């Protein structure tokens, strides 16, 4: 069976799409057959981050409406043959997706032998976010180390435990906490919540901590998931998170401020 992983958050702009692209690419790099779906109808951002925006002809809504087949709409990644993108539509209204339509697409992907389906959720708790999480087996809850993001994530955890298919069937969606835009130096100065603070408030262990990094913007400008960047802490942190999602144990990195050497201290490097 295909495993459905929703990447969600309460607050907007915390790094869901960045995370969806990197997790999907990381799983594909490990040989899994992966589809990543943009549930953010009206905005269409995932295809930009994945670098396939010029190849979008048909989108998720077209498939749900029966205007295109899944095969026509799935865009094969240029880097990995086993990675596919289903883009969101830019023009239609937010109500274009239906529960039945989404279920059919997920079932068809399963029948096509996909191992993982990564659902990039829109922000908030409206219909799109609800549809993105409804069929999920696992949820990656993306949180920034600040109070408002943590508070809104708590609401999402409540929805995952009540408004999903698994919840309705008396089961659980397995939840994973992913901290992004983490700055150990600012945590040390007391300007940001620490990993432990966030873990304690939400009652979840972090599956990954992604540092604040200019590599994220650079990668997205190139249309490349940041996990593929060479010599990037953000890339390494995403790779660790993917490994942990697959059940491997890895020590947490990039959570303490970099120790400055003698020369950089002297010369402010
Ligand atoms: N680790 C990071 N370091 C620095 N910038 C980051 C990091 N992660 C994400 N960003 C930046 O944060 C912004 C929002 O990221 P992204 O689009 O992935 O968030 P989102 O949660 O999908 O947003 P929305 O709720 O609008 O869908 C982008 O400009 C992105 O480049
Ligand atoms: Mg997004």
Automatic annotation (TrEMBL):
It comes from the Bacteria. InterPro entries: CobQ/CobB/MinD/ParA_Nub-bd_dom, MinD, MinD_FleN, P-loop_NTPase, ParA/MinD_ATPase. GO terms for cellular component: cytoplasmic side of plasma membrane; cytosol. Gene3D superfamilies: P-loop containing nucleotide triphosphate hydrolases. GO terms for molecular function: ATP binding; ATP hydrolysis activity. One of its GO terms (biological process) is division septum assembly. NCBIfam families: minD_bact. Belongs to the ParA family. MinD subfamily. This is Septum site-determining protein MinD. It comes from Solilutibacter tolerans. The lineage of its organism: Bacteria, Pseudomonadati, Pseudomonadota, Gammaproteobacteria, Lysobacterales.
